[in-house]
Design goal:
flat, 3-stranded antiparallel beta sheet, 4-stranded antiparallel beta sheet, about 150 residues, about 25% helix, alpha+beta
Length: about 150
C-alpha cells in the first residue's frame, strides 16, 4: 500500500513538472507577444498606423442637417427587501430590471424584467416566511417601488 501511494505521488509530481515545462515552452505561442510594455512613442506609432474603417454612404445625395438625438439619462436604483435584492433602471418612463438576486432561503418565482411601464420580480420562501413581490415603475425618470 505504501509503495502504491509513493508511486502515485511520484507520478503526480512528474506529470505536474512536465505540464509546467510544456506550458513554459508554449506560453509565448499561446499568449501571443512577449507581453513587454510599450513605450509612449511605440503606442503613438501603433495608433498612427491604424486606418479608420470607411463609412458606408447611400447614393449620391448629401446628408441633410443633423437632427439632435434626444438624450435620455439612465437612472439606476438598488432595492433591498426581505426576499432579495433588485437593481432597476429607468430611461424616461421605461423601467428595466438589470439584475435580481434572492435572499438566503428564497427563490425567484417569476420575473417581468421589462423594459416597460412596469417591471416586477417575485421572491418565494423555501419554507417559513412570506412571499415578496417587488413592482417597480418610473416616476420623474427614477425607479419607484411598490411592494407587498
Amino acid at each position: 500500500m505504501k509503495r502504491l501511494v509513493l508511486a502515485w505521488a511520484a507520478t503526480a509530481v512528474a506529470a505536474t513538472g512536465a505540464a509546467v515545462a510544456v506550458l513554459g515552452l508554449l506560453g509565448g505561442a499561446l499568449t501571443g507577444t512577449s507581453g513587454r510594455v510599450l513605450s509612449g512613442e511605440e503606442v503613438r506609432a501603433a495608433l498612427a498606423s491604424i486606418t479608420p474603417a470607411p463609412t458606408a454612404t447611400r447614393g449620391t445625395t448629401s446628408p441633410g442637417p443633423a437632427t439632435p438625438t434626444p438624450s435620455v439619462t439612465r437612472v439606476d436604483r438598488l432595492v433591498q427587501t426581505a426576499g432579495g435584492t433588485v437593481i432597476a433602471s429607468c430611461e424616461g418612463d421605461r423601467v428595466t430590471l438589470r439584475s435580481w438576486s434572492p435572499a438566503q432561503g428564497y427563490s425567484v418565482d417569476g420575473v417581468e424584467a421589462g423594459p416597460g411601464l412596469e417591471a416586477s420580480v417575485e421572491f418565494e420562501p423555501g419554507g417559513e416566511g412570506e412571499e415578496v413581490e417587488v413592482t417597480i415603475t418610473c416616476q420623474g425618470g427614477r425607479p419607484v417601488t411598490r411592494g407587498r
